[in-house]
Write a structure and sequence with these properties.
Layout lengths: L1 E3 L12 E3 L2 H12 L24 H5 L19
Length: 81
C-alpha cells in the first residue's frame, strides 16, 4: 500500500510516497485522524514504543519480568551422550 507521508493526498511526489503494509497504514491513519502521534518501532528489549500498543497494556507489562520459578529444571545428560 502506498501512503502519503505528509498526510497530503494531493502531493504525489516520490519523497512523499511511502510503502506500508495494510496494518501499518491503518494504524497510522487511525492515529492521525484521532489527533494522536504516530509512534513506530520498538525499544532495546523489543517492546513496541507506542504506549497504546496492545503489548503495552498493564496485564502484559506485569509479565515482562521473567520469574526464575518459570525456568524448566535442567536435567543431567545420560553418560553415554
Amino acid at each position: 500500500m502506498v501512503d502519503h507521508a505528509s498526510g497530503d493526498p494531493s502531493d504525489n511526489s516520490r519523497r512523499n510516497l511511502v510503502a506500508l503494509c495494510e496494518p501499518c497504514h491503518n494504524h497510522k491513519t487511525q492515529r492521525q485522524r484521532a489527533g494522536l502521534p504516530v509512534v513506530w518501532g520498538c525499544d532495546a528489549q523489543g517492546w513496541p514504543r507506542d504506549p497504546m500498543h496492545s503489548w503495552n497494556r498493564e496485564t502484559t507489562i506485569e509479565t515482562r519480568q521473567k520469574s526464575l520459578g518459570t525456568e524448566a529444571p535442567k536435567t543431567a545428560r545420560p553418560p553415554f551422550l
